[in-house]
Predict the structure.
Amino acid sequence: MKRNIFVTMGILILTGFAIQGFVGAIGGIFLTTIIGIVYGTVKRDKRLVKWSAAALMITIFCIMVCYGWLLITANSQ
């Protein structure tokens, strides 16, 4: 079952990247971290929850950087 979750996570990330590029990959990673946290909590897999939470923090940081970059480029024009 854990393998199916990881395959689903990979498909979500690749689909987001294929559709919207870098921003879509960030969105795909965001969705997969939520799935990983929920699945790890239900199955009591502490390692999966820990790594999913770390990936969620990195994703939130990337979202803030992309949003800041968009604001800076929008104001310069």
